[in-house]
Write a structure and sequence with these properties.
It is built from nine helices and seven strands; from the N terminus they run βαβαββαβαβαβαααα. It is of the alpha/beta class. α1 crosses α9 and α5 runs parallel beside α6.
Length: 220
């Protein structure tokens, strides 16, 4: 059976699509069979994967698309809130990618693990994540937890600007649930325009950051 990862952002622009594509590709590079399942339409993701914005998907596993250059498959969950057994048994990892808060609510019960993306540079970043966690627990009848926080767009040379947010998050969640930060870099920002992944970049620090994230997800 696939391990199902719900990957969400506390707000638009927090790195959900970037994390999903590079994590899925990273898992595939380690030999795992990976499916990215989109709930709702994510225009950035579809542009990145060269999928027609008007492409419609039904609840048919035959409509799974292979994104050959990135090593994983894509499936749009437009007409369903379930994952067919055929797909659950065909992959090692399924990354659920809801396009909105309402989409998140309809599929959150399917997940084995939940990962939340946040832009640490935002002044209220920690408060947003903590608020999301409290709402998530209520929706899951206090049984659901956030397994991992991915902090994106972190300027490691100006860490003092991030210290307060980071401290609040570690106090609330514990250090073990905070992933190593993903550095801020325009090369990451430009990846969707080129249809590439971080693994094709020459910057060791960027590839290493996503490699550590991939290894952390495998250990969940």
């Amino acid at each position: 059976m696939a391990k199902i990862i719900l990957l969400v952002s506390v707000r638009s622009g927090s790195g959900q699509s970037t994390t999903a594509v590079n994590l899925a590709s990273g898992l595939a590079r380690k030999g795992y069979r990976v499916l990215v399942a989109e709930k709702g339409k994510n225009s950035k993701l579809r542009t990145w994967l060269s999928i027609d914005q008007d492409e419609h998907f039904m609840n048919e596993t035959s409509l799974v698309m292979t994104i050959a250059q990135m090593g994983f498959d894509f499936w749009g969950m437009e007409k369903t809130d379930i994952i067919p057994d055929q797909l659950s048994h065909s992959y090692d990892y399924i990354i659920l990618l809801p396009a909105s808060a309402s989409d998140c609510i309809t599929v959150q019960h399917l997940s084995d693990h939940t990962i939340v993306c946040s832009d640490l540079n935002r002044k209220d970043a920690s408060a947003e994540v903590i608020s999301f966690d409290r709402d998530y627990r209520i929706r899951q009848s206090n049984t659901g937890i956030i397994d991992l926080i991915v902090l994106n767009k972190v300027n490691t040379k100006e860490w003092h600007h991030n210290a307060e947010n980071f401290s609040l998050l570690t106090d609330y969640f514990g250090c073990e649930r905070i992933a190593d930060p993903i550095p801020h870099c325009e090369r990451i920002h430009d990846l969707p325009l080129d249809g590439h992944t971080v693994w094709e970049l020459s910057q060791d620090n960027l590839r290493d950051a996503f490699m550590r994230l991939t290894e952390t997800v495998v250990s969940l």
